[in-house]
Amino acid sequence: MPLICIASPKGGVGKTSVAAGLADALRRAGRTVVALDCDPQNALRLHLGLPITDGAGYLARLPERPDWRSFLRQTPAGIDLLPHGEADLRSALASAMMIEREPELLAGPVRAMLADPATIVVADTPPGASAALAALMPQTALVLAVLLADAASTALLPDIESGRFLGQGTLGTLTGPKLMVALNQVDRHSRLSVAAAEGVATHLGPRLAGAVCRDEAMAEALACQRPIGAHAPASRAARDTADLAAALLRALPPPAPAPVASPLFPWMRP
């Protein structure tokens, strides 16, 4: 029943690609996975194979207080997805304000998803501090911060380690050992990229969960609307993503045992 939140200190780092790849890799590792898109860009659905024309989603309709189950989609990738939905700037801000005022609007559906002890929920959250991440934090087992392997990553390390990129005050101090880092788009042919990755790895130590190489197969996978593990399972990026998923599984608490039927209540089944 763990919740993994995928976060980033800024946009443009491939956070959603990592979220989709991880969800698929965890499913391939034998886990039941539900993906949750909290980012108003509404892009996670494209990585998991939903039609481009399907713009429905839960958070985009939050002011109407809909039943979240009506928006849950079974994707061609074999992963259940609760999409964000198409939203303009005004409606995205309205939804964020509602979550800030009533965190249970988001925390409640996630709690229901996590009621199944075999399920892992992977939430793609907006870049930086957000009302969605604050609402999910009390249930979060791991926050995975995605960084690019470039010079700017070095400058962001103090904010990553302290949790300041998650926001001021309590949220920035809640993560503690829950916070891990993934490097994305490591270019093995660039000395600068390799040097930046090595510097980050040395500095973070065990908080670095893994690194995903720069690979054209990632862009091709998105164009085909498939996770990297489904589109190009033999690619270096797919292997890196599988390694990252394995590292996160090792860091997560072991799955709780399925409930056993009580002889007093024989109609209760595990």
Describe this structure in words.
This is AAA family ATPase. It comes from Roseomonas alba. The protein has 270 residues and is of the alpha/beta class. It has a single domain (3-251), classed as P-loop containing nucleotide triphosphate hydrolases (Rossmann fold, 3-Layer(aba) Sandwich), CATH 3.40.50.300. Helices cover 39% and strands 16% of the residues. It contains 11 helices and 8 strands. It has helices spanning 15-28, 44-47, 89-101, 104-113, 131-136, 151-162, 170-174, 191-204, 216-223, 228-231, 236-251; strands at residues 3-7, 32-37, 73-74, 80-82, 119-124, 142-148, 179-186, 208-213. Strands 3-4-2-5-1-6-7-8 form an 8-stranded mixed β-sheet, with helices on both faces. Helix 1 packs across helix 11 and helix 6 packs parallel to helix 8. The longest helix has 16 residues, at 236-251. The chain is globular. The chain starts with a strand and ends in a 19-residue tail after the last helix. The model is unreliable at 261-270 (pLDDT under 50).
Distance between the termini: 15 Å
CATH H-level superfamily title = P-loop containing nucleotide triphosphate hydrolases
Gross CATH architecture: 3-Layer(aba) Sandwich
State the major sheet: 8 strands, mixed
Please tell me the total number of domains. Answer: 1
Q: What is the strand arrangement across the widest sheet? A: 3-4-2-5-1-6-7-8
Q: Give the CATH level 1 class.
A: Alpha Beta
Q: Into which percentage range does the β-strand content fall? A: 15-25%
Query: Unreliable runs, pLDDT <50, ≥5 residues?
Result: 261-270
Nearest-angstrom radius of gyration?
18 Å
Average pLDDT confidence is 89
Order of helices and strands: EHEHEEHHEHEHHEHEHHH
Number of strands: 8
Helix and strand composition category: alpha/beta
Tell me the helix content: 25-40%
**How would the global form be characterised?**
globular
- What CATH calls the topology is Rossmann fold
Helical run tally: 11
Keywords: Developmental protein
InterPro entries: Cellulose_synthase_operon_BcsQ, DNA_Partitioning_ATPase, Homeobox_Antennapedia_CS, P-loop_NTPase
Protein name: AAA family ATPase
